[in-house]
Amino acid sequence: MTTTPETSRPTPSASRLVDLFEYGLAAPICLTWELTYACNLSCTHCLSSSGRRDPRELTTAEAKAVIDELEAMQVFYVNIGGGEPTVRPDFWELIDYATAHHVGVKFSTNGVRITPEVAQRLARNDYVDVQISLDGATADVNDAVRGPGSYDTALRAMRNLADAGMKNFKLSVVCTRHNIPQMDDFKAIADRYGAQLRLTRLRPSGRGADVWDELHPLPEQQRELYDWLVAHGEQVLTGDSFFHLSAYGQALPGLNLCGAGRVVCLIDPVGDVYACPFAIHDEFLAGNVRRPGGFAHVWRESELFRSLREPQSGGACASCTFYDTCKGGCMAAKFFTGLPLDGPDPECVQGYGEQLLADRPKGRGHIPKPSGDHSHRTAPGRRSGPVDVVLRRRPDMDRPPVSDCAEDPLAGMRLT
Amino acid sequence: MATLNLDRAWDLHPQVSVRPEPFGALLYHFGTRKLSFLKDRGLLAVVQALATAPTARAACSAAGVDDGNLPRYEQALAVLAQSSMVVERTPSP
């Protein structure tokens, strides 16, 4: 998922933009809207634990009402995701509705529905951008995380988009221990299809919590990634997701701040509004678009968002010389690894996070669980109530067994 | 350093949306998909005056920019022109 877009700053005044943004904006710059929890894949790191549709998902009419609100608030564009948003039957209708109402759309997809026809349709609409997810530059690395066949699906979608003349769509990669050595290969794939590479951080959110320990970049890989990002500058997008790496030295392009509730938020498929796409947990739930006042009311008035817009103290990080660049890192990453929110990021490049991770109690009891789990079932669902079955001997063992369906008038008759 | 001819007519690109904010404004270009920030309300007033002013210089003075501050605003407009947020207005036939 995403956060902040590319920025430039024509400025006659001198104050730092990031300081202005800490107090929040009249409307989000970057709004992520997950349209459905339904997905054809079961990626191991899915940050919304998607798979099965939620029966309470917003209807077409409700989704259009949200778009009307976004238009009124002048939200320039939304980042649509899921789940796999294109499996919603009204997906294209909603895209057309949004762009007709001056709300640009960038949507993330695994590519399953990007046929040549769809690609041509997308290429014709200036107000739509597409982001294809791929987490390995080779099928083996990708499919280990995203599932068998998903590499081929993504590449076919990219080829269809390129053939249709779609320019500068995004190739979106979640950086893991296994793909960090492939950065140049990802860049080559993006270049081949006329796409732009976008790298984001693996978060321990959703199912990501289950695989984070094995997948998150090793400390030396973080340095490798940082150097790679510095070398490629503005050519590569990051959604501002690596600002914790800025503590290595030079700040990376972007705002370098946690935008949760300030410039960013998430609307989930059932209309719940969370502070950011990586924090689907009651602790970060600000409200619901179905309630009176809708989304605008949640954005402007929610107590949670107001508190996130207060100046934050650095907590345990305040005395660190790098606090000004990394701001303590990612709130969601701390929360879902069981670390205090006012301390270092679990991937703090100064190593303070590793220390805290090592000092955590054994087991996972202290780690908060995401609010929902829409994962595909790999075992039969639980029944709503217990079914009592007691196995015991028939009391009349001396009689012949009789089926309940036996229609013979003499059935069960004891002939002695 | 970017430059801009203050004595020509300029306007926002037709694909640019402006959203006023307490600190100034946000600009979004739907064609380039780039976001830009105006970090003061004065610059917002200048940008909004461009469409109806015969020149950028006239837009600045309509927005109350005094001569001493003109170079800073010229520079800010030049940066906006560089990213196609602001484009030269074609003279009406």
UniProtKB/TrEMBL annotation, chain A:
Radical SAM core domain: residues covered: 25-235
Catalyzed reactions per annotation: [mycofactocin precursor peptide]-C-terminal glycyl-N-{[2-(4-hydroxyphenyl)ethenyl]-3-methylbutanamide} + AH2 + S-adenosyl-L-methionine = [mycofactocin precursor peptide]-C-terminal glycyl-N-{5-[(4-hydroxyphenyl)methyl]-4,4-dimethyl-2-oxopyrrolidin-3-yl}acetamide + 5'-deoxyadenosine + L-methionine + A + H(+); [mycofactocin precursor peptide]-C-terminal glycyl-L-valyl-L-tyrosine + S-adenosyl-L-methionine = [mycofactocin precursor peptide]-C-terminal glycyl-N-{[2-(4-hydroxyphenyl)ethenyl]-3-methylbutanamide} + 5'-deoxyadenosine + L-methionine + CO2
Keyword field: 4Fe-4S, Iron, Iron-sulfur, Lyase, Metal-binding, S-adenosyl-L-methionine
Keyword rRNA processing: no
One Pfam family here: SPASM
Listed cofactors: [4Fe-4S] cluster
Listed CDD domains: Radical_SAM, SPASM_MftC-like
Single Gene Ontology MF annotation: metal ion binding
SMART domains: Elp3
EC identifiers of the protein: 1.3.98.7, 4.1.99.26
InterPro entries according to UniProt: 4Fe4S-binding_SPASM_dom (IPR023885), Aldolase_TIM (IPR013785), Elp3/MiaA/NifB-like_rSAM (IPR006638), Heme_synthase-like (IPR034480), MftC (IPR023913), Radical_SAM_PqqE_MftC-like (IPR050377), rSAM (IPR007197), rSAM_sf (IPR058240)
Transmembrane segments: none
Compositional bias (Basic and acidic residues): 390-401
Region (Disordered): 359-416
Alphabetical list of PANTHER family matching this protein: PQQA PEPTIDE CYCLASE (PTHR11228:SF7), RADICAL SAM DOMAIN PROTEIN (PTHR11228)
Protein name: Mycofactocin maturase MftC
Organism annotation: Streptomyces himalayensis subsp. himalayensis
Lineage: Bacteria, Bacillati, Actinomycetota, Actinomycetes, Kitasatosporales
TrEMBL record, chain B:
InterPro entries assigned: MftB
Identification of the protein by name: Mycofactocin biosynthesis chaperone MftB
